[in-house]
Amino acid sequence: MRKFLALFIALSFTLSSFASGSSVLEPVSKPVNPKATDIIIPIGSSGQKISLSDFSTMSIKEAEKLTGKKFSLANKLGFKIVQKKLRKSISSDGNITVNSNGKSKAGASIPKVLYVIMALVGLGWLAMGILDNFSGSNWWIGLLLYFLFFIPGVIFTLIKMKDYYN
Questions:
Q1: Backbone angles phi, psi at 64, to 5 degrees
Q2: What are phi and psi of 106, to 5 degrees?
């Protein structure tokens, strides 16, 4: 038991030393909502450039023509999923909408069902870390709650779900 307590204290000091180095204050600025027509991306090996709004409405045949490659079924499905997420993040006036945390609405990379399953299994802290790019403090709190008390970790993760999903 003493070894476990010593290990826990050493781990706490180590983690707190890393946390103190990352607490540099940065000026707070409002996220800018750029226009989808102003953001230009290169497509294919030729480097032809198109806007995000054009990319969100492009057909699979046009994408195959631009890239010079035939899409497999998995590529076609992935392409359509990305287009759907992109269309959701583009508002009616053409701006890319950004959440209050500064991330695009299309940025959630874990489906909601998988998030809930991960929370119930004990990996909710990992889901929050992935969705935050391990930059926020929510995943640390979730990890600590899961480590010390399982049920409060589940509750915390499920309450914080509203920050990641609409």
A1: -65, -40
A2: -85, 5
Same domain (yes/no): 67, 47: yes
Task: Kindly state whether residue 21 falls inside one of the protein's structural domains.
Answer: no
Domain extent, residue 139, equals: 108-166
pTM of whole model > 0.85? Answer: no
Pairwise CA distance, residues 119 & 94, whole Å: 35
Angstrom CA distances, 87 to 59, 64, 90, 94, 100, stand at 13, 20, 5, 10, 19
What is the CB-side half-sphere exposure of residue 159 using CA atoms within 13 A? 10
Q: How far is CA 43 from the centre of its chain?
A: 23
Instruction: Kindly state the DSSP code that residue 22 receives in the 8-state scheme.
Output: T
pLDDT, one tens digit per residue, over 126-159 is 888 888 878 888 889 998 998 888 899 999 999 9
Residues 116 and 140 placed together within one structural domain of the fold: yes
58-95 pLDDT tens trace? 898 988 888 888 888 878 877 887 788 778 878 888 88
